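Entry type: protein chain
Record version: 2
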Amino acid sequence: MANQPNILLIYTGGTIGMIKDYETNALKAFNFEKLLDRIPELRQLNCSIDTHSFEEPIDSSNMNTDYYVTIAEVIEEKYSEFDGFVILTGSDTMSYTSSALSFMLEDLAKPIIFTGSQLPIGHLRTDAKENLITSIEIACSRKNNLPIITEVCLYFEYKLYRANRTTKINTERFEAFASMNYPPLVESGVHLDFNFDLLHQPKEYDQKLIVRKSLISDVIILKLFPGITEKAIKAILDIPDLKGVVLETYGSGNAPTYPWFVKLLEKSIQNGTHIVNVTQCVGGSIIFGHYETSIELKRIGVIDGKDITTESAIAKLMYLLGEDIPKKEFKNLYEKPLRGELDF
């Protein structure tokens, strides 16, 4: 690596890249090629910054697996040229996107940091500048001339998280994200405080990046609620070509014990659909068999999602389904941590 890290800033869209046209009061996309003019503080960082912007910025609500692949391909193409990547996306789906990228990028040995903002970069009280500056600074951080961060992360409001552990929890506060089941990797104050014991360490720093692009989107999130009907669940499980379900259950993994409910899930599993049990709670873990209401799910072969987030669970399903894993091996592989997304 060069003495001065080269960082690629990838702008896909989102609030962070908007500035106000004061003649019309409308928001318009920011030209990131003029980034140093807008944020001269970046010149103080010991790195060089290049930019890559999508021709048409993507609203976070329109994010999909095709865009996941596009982002991954930019990283794949530029991986040897740059020492770190900062990706700007809309915050509404950022946990989904960054979780997916964590599974798609195998043998990663460089920092990939997602960030964004609650207010546009040109807004008077914007959080965009701090999020962007610190994300780049963390991406530049090195120890013994090697990058400190070597995984896919998400930075927002003074904290760097493992991306596939995050959930957006607030639409109005600058502290928009939380990682309830895994502590922050870095906390930003007067100094950057790295929690080194929590960081992923690659086996080798010069290994070749493997990019997994075969994602299967024939999946669904099914959230239980008191009063949900047999008709509704049957309609969902009978969706043509359905291959995976993230089942959001109550508390530590509990679900109704109605015979019709268990029978529908069991039939779906027997037909080849993979069903993952995750908790509706913001924090905590599935504990199969802790209550009688989860024993039946375990018996019929529902996958134990443990403490994985819903966002990461759906991304992991898409990824593993795309790898064409035999049915007998799928459950065991899903229940193991692949990118630090769950506790073993």
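Comment: The longest strand covers residues 6-11.
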